[in-house]
Amino acid sequence: TTYKVATFVGSLRKASFTRKIANVLKDLAPEQLELEIIEIGDLPIYNQDLDDEGKPPAAWTAFREKVISYDAVLFATPEYNRSVPAVLKNALDVGSRPYGKSVWNGKPGAVVSVSPGALAAFGANHHLRQSLVFLNVPTLQQPEAYIGNVAKLLDEEGRISNEETRKFLAEFLARFAEWIERNHR
Ligand code: FNR
User: Fold this and answer.
1) Is 63 left (phi over 0), alpha (psi -120 to 50) or beta?
2) Phi and psi of 40, rounded to 5°?
3) Which atom, in ligand 1's list, is nearest to the CA of 117?
4) What stretch of H or E contains 58?
């Protein structure tokens, strides 16, 4: 079986390290996993009135319909002020509503946090996990993926220049594949 993994990147900038890591993960994915990045930058900021009035923006509806068709979810996130960037939190919020129709419910997930700093976006990683508990996303616990000092890990072409990190990311994906196998429905 091949599992389709919706992959979300919590940075919108062109040269995003986090997006580069997401692309590396896509390339390293074992044959059971197919990673696809789903764009979240054009989702209007969540406003419950629009759902309550039955007039959700088309971008919300398209996003919800898209995510629901995947087997699993992978979040690659930088850290903004020790937390999850608003663009990624907004995507979680949009996907979680209307109440009772959350697209996240029950989908196996994993988190990779990325930072040029030494603390490896630990704060974002765990704030994200707090939401994923509530959203009922069974989230891979081990191995945890904290990618710190990321600028030193990527070469000019956005490839991982360091064998140890590449091996770690491949192992992370292998464990995620097992996790999806055990937890998907
Ligand atoms: C940051 N940055 C940052 N880094 C970090 O490790 N912890 C933090 O709390 C913050 N806070 C923060 C807030 C805001 C508003 C910005 C714009 C940046 C730095 C951040 O890690 C850096 O800009 C990364 O390059 C962002 O990830 P991408 O865009 O390269 O994927």
Assistant:
1) alpha
2) -125, 0
3) 6
4) helix 58-68
Digit-coded pLDDT (tens) for 47-94? 999 999 999 999 999 999 999 999 999 999 999 999 999 999 999 999
122-177 pLDDT, tens digit per residue, is 999 999 999 999 999 999 999 999 999 999 999 999 999 999 999 999 999 999 99
Atom of ligand 1 nearest to the CA of 20: 31
R_g over Cα of the chain = 16
**Which pLDDT score is estimated for 128?**
98
| CA–CA dist 5, 69 (Å, integer) | 10
Domains with residue ranges and CATH for the chain? 3-183 (3.40.50.360)
- Which residues approach ligand 1 with their CB closer than 6 A? 11, 13, 16-18, 78-82, 114-117, 119, 121
Q: How many CA atoms lie within 13 A of 5 on its CB side?
A: 30
Does residue 1 carry a pLDDT above 90?
no
| Nearest atom (ligand 1) to Cα of 120 | 6
Beta strands at 109-114 and 72-77: parallel, antiparallel or unpaired: parallel
Q: Report how far apart, in Å, the C-alpha atoms of 138 and of each of 26, 59, 74 are.
A: 21, 26, 11
